[in-house]
Amino acid sequence: MRLFPPEKYPLPFERLFARMSIAAFLIGCAFARSGFGETYLWNGASGGAWTDPANWLPSTGYPGGGDDVVFSNNAAGGTVTLSGEQAARAIYFGSVVSSNVPGFNISGSPLNLGAGGIHQYSRANNETISAPIRLSADSILAEYSYWPGQKDFNINGGIDNNGHALRLHSEGYRMLVNQAVSGTGLVEVTGDDSVYLRAANTFSGGFSVSGARAVLDGASGSIPAVSSLAITAGGRLEIGETGNALADDGTNTFGRVPNNIPVMLSNCRYVKLVGGNGANTVERMGAVDIRNERNYILVNNGSGADATLVLASLVRNPQSRPLLIVGSDNYNLGGLSRIVVAGGLTNWQTIGGSNSRGTDKAIVPCVFSATQPSYTKGSQAYLTTFVRYDETSGFVPLHPSNDFVNATDTNFPAVAPDGNDNVRLPWLAVHPTNAVYTNFVPASTTINSLVIFDDLPFTADKELVLAGPPGATLTIKSGMILVAASSDAKRYYAAINVSTLDFAQAEGVIAAGWTHYGWINVNSALAGTNGLTITTHDSDDQGSVYLNADNRNLRGQITIAGGFENYARVVPQHRYALGDGSNDLFLAGAKLVPWVSDHLTVRSLSGSGLVYSQWNASGKRLNIGGNGTGSENNTVKLLDGGTISPGLPDQAGVLTIERFTQVKFLGGTVRLDIFAPCSHDVINLAGSGSDVPTLSINAASLEVNLGYRPAIGDTFAVIKVAGTNAVSGQFAQGSVVMARYGQRKFFLDILYNSSLAGCDGNDIVLRVARYDAGGTVFVAR
After folding, report:
1. Considering the entire predicted model, what is its pTM?
2. What does 148-185 look like in DSSP terms, one character per residue?
3. Which end of the chain is more exposed for a tag (fewer CB within 10 A), N or C?
4. What pLDDT band is residue 32 in, cutting at 50, 70 and 90?
5. Burial of 691 (C-beta count, 10 Å sphere; 0-12/13-18/19+)
6. What is the pLDDT of residue 780?
């Protein structure tokens, strides 16, 4: 019988950097094990020698490479000494149900560690590994010391990943890696707490941070040899107080990170450079790819020194249309603290004027500042303003007073006829008391950008309405609209009621900043030729954007971008709120809540996020494809010409359809990518009680794209259906679908109502049945 729980988080790496080696995807599967050796419980009855059988229960021997080791409160703490190389499959300090563990220190000769890893549950004492660790398989070091009584997990002997993938998982408190990690394997930091890397690490595989906080800390903490860097799924990378502690080697300034590797940010909670040690800090990074959702780059002056982060280049994924947020402490960005792109912002066109009058500055589309005067943010990004780019100073926030035409009373301010003015409506002027105010655009007007900002020193809950005469159009040349609040005001309620809000050729961007309570009602008809991106901060359905008008003159992709572990919530309340049915909808960590009793239609649905049927909505329906007619209440339909495709072409995703009682695939295409056994697209049909879904399939096609060479017998749970309702019907392919990888054709069984791959009997699973390699057919035996 197994007394201790299996390793936590053998999760798929859906968001890992696609250019990393396939080991990055396989590590999530590596911790599964079909059988175990002996479990040895330490009792320390004969001293501290690992190799003395009298120190173990059972006392017939001591642990080897296939065995699990447990340290609990049945023995006094102290030093456990390894003489000669020793091995274990897994080591546990306590367990989920027993965390009162004395402090142990495993020291001495090297420890060969298997796939089970090392797990620290103790909340009574710090636990330490001083012996060098060498991996014999993909493995994990994990810290689960939850509050109260959180304790450190100290790694003092160094880790040789030996070409294997290493996961450092911190959940509850700190993991302190005080000696170098070496080897050619991938290193990933996961969890929700902090991993401190305090040595000059020499490992040369990829490095990724997902959810957790990785800190390059102290005088030596660095990763100068990594081959790629990915910050995903709310991950945080903090480049610690560097100053002059590390010498400039001409390639990696101050040595913390390389400047010649690819860097991917996808829902990056922050990359933060902290100056320190009384000296100005310059750090260089490689080519930065803003891949998906919202992403935040921050520079802080730390303990009295300025920080400059130099990026080799900066690109934005055109398919997912992510957003970038930049910031610094005390409004220094572009002054004493800088984020600079080497060679200039060549891949990101600015829009606006020539700065001839100060308020007509060209701004960087899809980039925001999260800086507030005299407010040091840490990880909270209160959107405040737009950003321009200067070749010397890098990204520079538009100053609220100097760089906008500010309203001075409750009227819309006068602007220049060239349409290049950036306009700001501060609530102190346009909404000075807690009453409903209407700000009136006197006629059709063109401006470069618009900020509506609640800067009141108190929380107001009455709406600000931006209106105009019948037929008037407010054109936003850059496409950029921000509605936000200060950390003191916390709230905004805004309605845009001008007849038409036109983004012209720009990508429209409507951003709802961080809020305690509030919303944006867009009652204007939207127009433009380059689509729309919306980001909000959803907290208990607050901070949402409501699309309430006929937007058939809006063409292009509609992206809803979330991030920082928080959905962006958009509520369409008109049949044509998402356009005429020809627009593509991409969810980037987002929540779409259809609230319309007519036939809301998009051409395709892709990305990762949630389509949600809210209990009190007047209508709950969505068509994907088709001609915009025929939808039934509380139903999602895939129709002719429509496509459902989770994720991105190089990034697996999960699309969830929740609380809709019917999901019907009546035409169109379901497109799924499979990158590895534990990394593939998933469609999740969720619900409970009376809202469990029923999936029916009739004439829809299934398309599968392979990103690796699977093995015969591999299974993939690709459509998961809550409840017990059976799937009815089949895809057009029937029971087998063909997919290619290179020159090989793979044939996958489509298993309807399957219980394989961890499913519960009413899900759809793909199983590799055979493949054709140059005329030779290989089949499962």
Report:
1. 0.91
2. SS---EEE-S-EE-TTS-EEEEESSS-EEE-S-EESSS
3. N
4. very low
5. middle
6. 61
